Amino acid sequence: MSDVMTASQARFDVAAGPDLRRWVLQGRDAGLAAGAAAFGLSGVPDMLRTAQVAGGTAARLGPHELVFFAEPDRADAIYSALQAGLKDIPSSLVEISDRQVAIDISGPDVELVLSSLSPMDFNIRAFPVGMATRTLLAKADGMVWRTGPQSFRLEVWRSFVPYMTEYLQKVACDVRF
Amino acid sequence: MLLIRCPYCGDRAEIEYANAGEAHIVRPADPMAVSDEEWAQYLYMRDNPKGLIAERWRHSHGCGRFFNAIRDTRTDRFVMTYEMGQPRPTIDSEAAAEAAR
Question: A1 pLDDT band (50/70/90 cuts)?
Answer without folding.
Answer: very low
